[in-house]
Amino acid sequence: MPIPRGSMVVVALGAAGRDAPQAEDDDPAVLDVTRPGARHLAFGHGIHHCLGAPLARLETSIALRTLLSRVPELELAAPADSLAWIGSGIIRGVLSLPVRYLVG
Question: Nearest-CA neighbor of 94 among 77, 86, 79?
Fold first, then answer.
């Protein structure tokens, strides 16, 4: 949809990636890493796309794969709906993420 000349545009980063559902039963508020065609603005877009994006994706992939292979029984230690979220409109995340795992 075109934005009329002179219109004010406000970027709400907390809403980034929350597109309209792609299917009737799809929920844009649910993190679904298997969702086809998932687009987001985390690394910018077009000419302003972050040069470090491939490295950040690689580091994240390695870190998560290593963590989950070394601690396969890692699980959330509190109900997901009880987590407290950061109240900022710029950063989206939880204040703390309690987890538990077996030592052995």
Answer: 86
